[in-house]
Design a protein that fits this description.
single chain, alpha/beta, Creatine Amidinohydrolase, Chain A, domain 1, Creatine Amidinohydrolase, six-stranded mixed sheet, four-stranded mixed sheet, 36% helix
C-alpha cells in the first residue's frame, strides 16, 4: 500500500503543478482515505471530530487530527507529518492554518490551496468553520479542485481494480445464495437478511444499502426499504446491493420471479439486458461518455420504450456513485482504468427491468466486472 500511496502523491503533485496550485486540502472520508491510506470508521460517524489531509505540490503530505490518533496513524499510514489539533472542526481549522503558515511563510505570492467545493464533493466541516478557514486564512487563495480530485480518482490503479473485482465477486455470491434459498412466501426483509449475512460471510466490510421491492404496482420503489411483505406467485423480487471491500464499492441489482417469469417478464428482461450489453460494446478509450447516453436513448426508442433522461450509469470506486456518468451531459473522455456502471431501466406493473453491470475500460476496449449470470431467476413455488 505504501507504493500505491506514493504513486497517488506523485500524480497529485504533477496535477497541482499543472494547475499552479501549492496544496490540496481534503476533508471528506473517501478523499482522506485515498491520499492517506488511513481508515478509522467510527471517527467519521462523529460530528465532533475531524480529520484532514494536506497534499503538497512540493513537500510531503500531512495529516491534521486529534492527538489520540497519532500513534495509530503512524502504525497504519506511511505519512509522518502529523499535526495535532483539538478534537473539533474549529480546532482542526486553527491547526491547519498554523501548519500552512509554517510551510509557507508570507512572501510576495499568495499560496493557492485547492478545496472540495465542486462537482459531487463535500467538505467535512460546518459552514461556520469553513467561513473561519477563509477569513483567518486571508493570506492564501482558496479555489475549487473537484475536477483535479476526480481526475485522479477516476483512473483506477491495479490495486483498486482488484478491490473492485473482489467485492463484485462477493456480491455475486450473495445473490446466488439468496436465489438458492428463496421460496414462495419469503418476505422482503428476510431476503435482505440473507443478502446481508452472505455479504459478511463472503468477506465484505459491510452491506451499506439493500433496496428490495416486490408485487404488482410496487416496482417504482427502487429505493425501497425491505418490508415484511411476502412474495407470491408471479411476483418479481428485485434487490439492489451496495457493499464494500477495503472501502471499494459494488452496486448492482438482480431479480427473480416466484414460479418463473411470464413471457412478458422474460421479454422485457431480455430486451433491457440486450440494450445494456450493446451500450457496453461501445466502450473503449477515446469515446465520450455522452455517446453512451445518446445510444441508450436511441435503443429505448427503437424498442418502443419510454425515453430515458438523466444518468444511466455512474462511476464507482471509494464512493458508490462518482464521476464519470453515463449521461448525455457528461463530456468525459474514456481512459483505461475507468470503472462505471451501465444501468438503463424500464418499470411497469410486472417488474423492475434493470440488468446493472459495471465495466472496466481497458487499453483495447472493456471488461465486465459484474458476474456473468444476469438471468432473471426462478424462485420455486411452495412444495417445489
Amino acid at each position: 500500500m505504501k507504493n500505491e500511496l506514493k504513486q497517488r502523491w506523485e500524480r497529485a503533485k504533477e496535477e497541482l503543478r499543472k494547475e499552479e496550485m501549492d496544496f490540496l486540502l481534503v476533508t471528506n472520508k473517501e478523499n482522506f482515505e485515498y491520499f492517506t491510506g488511513y481508515k478509522v470508521e467510527h471517527l467519521w460517524l462523529s460530528r465532533s471530530r475531524v480529520l484532514m489531509a494536506l497534499v503538497s505540490a512540493e513537500g510531503e503530505p500531512a495529516i491534521v487530527g486529534p492527538e489520540v490518533l497519532k500513534e495509530d496513524i503512524y502504525e497504519r499510514s506511511p505519512i509522518r507529518n502529523f499535526v495535532p489539533c483539538e478534537p473539533n472542526s474549529s480546532g482542526a481549522v486553527k491547526s491547519l492554518l498554523g501548519e500552512l503558515k509554517r510551510l509557507y511563510p508570507r512572501s510576495g505570492r499568495k499560496p493557492v490551496i485547492g478545496l472540495e467545493l465542486g462537482y459531487e464533493q463535500r467538505m467535512n466541516m460546518p459552514p461556520i468553520d469553513y467561513q473561519l478557514l477563509i477569513e483567518k486564512g486571508d493570506e492564501f487563495v482558496w479555489k475549487d479542485c473537484a475536477y483535479l480530485i476526480w481526475g485522479l480518482r477516476m483512473i483506477k490503479s491495479e490495486y483498486e481494480l482488484q478491490q473492485l473485482r473482489t467485492i463484485s465477486s462477493i456480491t455475486a455470491k450473495a445473490f446466488e445464495t439468496l436465489f438458492e434459498q428463496a421460496r414462495e412466501g419469503i418476505r422482503e426483509d428476510e431476503a435482505a437478511l440473507i443478502l446481508k449475512q452472505a455479504l459478511l460471510a463472503g468477506g465484505a466490510d459491510a452491506p451499506w444499502f439493500l433496496m428490495v421491492t416486490s408485487g404488482e404496482g410496487d416496482y417504482h420503489r427502487v429505493f425501497g426499504k425491505p418490508r415484511n411483505r411476502q412474495v407470491r406467485a408471479g411476483d418479481m423480487l428485485w434487490c439492489d446491493i451496495g457493499a464494500t471491500f477495503n472501502g471499494y464499492w459494488s452496486d448492482y441489482d438482480r431479480a427473480g420471479v416466484v414460479g418463473g417469469p411470464s413471457k412478458h417478464q422474460q421479454k422485457m428482461w431480455s430486451t433491457v439486458e440486450a440494450i445494456t450489453l450493446e451500450i457496453c460494446d461501445m466502450v473503449k478509450p477515446g469515446i465520450e461518455m455522452s455517446q453512451l447516453g445518446l445510444k441508450c436513448e436511441e435503443l429505448f426508442e427503437k424498442h418502443h420504450l419510454p425515453r430515458l433522461s438523466g444518468r444511466l450509469g455512474h462511476g464507482i470506486g471509494l464512493t458508490a456513485t462518482e464521476p464519470p456518468d453515463v449521461a448525455i451531459y457528461d463530456r468525459t473522455i474514456l481512459r483505461p482504468g475507468m470503472v462505471f456502471s451501465v444501468e438503463p431501466a424500464y418499470i411497469d406493473n410486472t417488474g423492475m427491468y434493470q440488468v446493472e453491470v459495471y465495466v472496466e475500460v481497458t487499453e483495447k476496449g472493456y471488461e465486465l466486472m459484474t458476474h456473468p449470470n444476469r438471468s432473471l431467476q426462478t424462485i420455486p413455488l411452495k412444495g417445489n
